Amino acid sequence: MFALGIGTAIATLWKFWDDPSTPENAWSAIIRLLYAIAITTPAWYAAKESARHRTNADRARQTELELASLGPFIELMQPEKKEAIREDLIKNYFGKGVTPHEVNEPVKIKDLKDLLLEAIKALSK
Q: Rounded to a whole number, what is the largest CA-CA distance in the chain?
């Protein structure tokens, strides 16, 4: 989906690169670029959310494997040592809050607006 939006934007640029500047061409290019943005935005959001879900799943899998391997790991240790290890692990695994997901926005809406305005100016020349 993301590739389709990028492809639409590139095709629009390719089609209108050498065309003479007329109001019809400018409106056609603007509409096509809006379609490209409409196609690309949901795909970008889905990719961002997919990465977040993948990170959470990896973290959960690591915790699951560590807790599952605890029993065999401490099986042959002294009982006092087992209890000390378990007490330390209680602090690490239980009673902790969920870390909030931080979104690093590489592109701001203002930057997109400026980019769109520059594209319109370039197409109208």
A: 85
